[in-house]
Amino acid sequence: KHATASPIIAFGKRLIPTMFRVFIFLASVAPGLFAQSVFAQNYHWRRALPASCRAVAFNPLSKGQILFAGPGRETDGIFRSDDAGATWTLHDTPGLTIPMNNIHQIFCVPGDTSVVLAVSPEELYRSTDGGFNWAIVSDTIGGVDGEDIAWHAADSTLYYGQNFGYALWKSHDLGATWSQTGFANPDSIGLCALDVSSDVPPTIIQGSEGTGLVARSVDDAEHWQVTLHADTGTNNECEVPKVVFSNYAADSVNGRHDVALVIRWLSNDRSLVGTPDGGLTWRTLPSPSIDPWALDVDQRVAKISVPSDAAYPLPLHFFIGLFGVESDTVENGMVQETSNGGATWHSTNFPKGSANSSSTPLVNLVWVLKFDTTTARLAAATDSGIYIADTLTDAVPEQHVVSSLQVMSELGCMIVSSPRPIEHAALFDLLGRAFWNSDWPNGSREIRLPSYNPSQPLLLRVRYLDESSETLLIRSF
Fold this sequence. Notes:
This protein is mainly beta. 0% of the residues lie in helices and 40% in strands. It has no helices and 36 strands. A hairpin with a 6-residue loop joins β6 (67-71) and β7. The chain is globular, with a radius of gyration of 22 Å.
């Protein structure tokens, strides 16, 4: 039988029938493939989890439904929500040699979202069942005081920067095993944040605490170059809690995806900076405060700048969260957004809170921000709990199109045909567990999926040579 893929309007575990006889193939184009540029500026915040948290993350395949939250030192374990934060369940694993608390980053691995990593200043933890059970990765690999886990999609590699100048680690098996790569940057003894570009080989940018310096490497940490030094003057201590590369913005000179943003908390005049060339040069951006800490970027293609924009080549739409201030004293609120590359900032309506309120308390610390591009849902981990913002208007529409992919079912084998060359494909179940993947470095316009007779719907994720991607929902019928 033959079908041309059509849009997914909505899907979820309870909405998809199973145990049928023929295949129906539906497709949704992945976020970031549209030219429409409407910025979500009208948010409704809810205090979804009233427990102090220092980390939050979305499952990237869940359309904003599955979230993880890492509590502070007061609570052991990781919270998980399967309903966009309406309810939460705490999952702890008894018997860990170092209790799992004070988590500073949670990372749901895009290559297999049943694998979730969590890091504290002491340890790196790993779950292989979607955050229900946890284990310490290794006695050799320590923790880090920041967000230092990064995913390099081109070769399905995880990067992890260990704190206090020890090492940079890589994993090619979703974090099961790790090997040291290159050398630690001796100038960044207090490593605090790290990210990698999507290029091959990637550009690595890391930032430190104490001095706020930023260093770069283009040879897998064999050599480091410090390109942003400590501030001058007597008040020169600052910290780099966040480095974020844009997935699609490119260096206008060489075409590499070397565009990144960096937060430098407490820097008097360089608290928010951007680089167009992988950290070789830096541009100071207007910041509404010297106190930004959290940062996330809207990673859709439609939200990158074009040469006619003053911000070019930086991304246009991103968010910052403030740290070490009281929420009722901040104009425009603790979480703010820009839609023009940082030139101006406006409120997201984050609640000001009150010292006398138990339902909407004051917030002093926004530790982590995460923006889900499929739903325009924004999550904030704060000292007063997890806050989640939904858009009040359809500012980020679903933007569905009919896919050009065609799927054939032939003697139990499925054949996917595409007018564009496919570079990588992977199959997932609806819990995000990957059970098959393959690569075609030169691209292929026809791929064969393994023979099976699924009793449950499956997801096929396809990445093209031009780096765009889409996801097919395969459900039996």
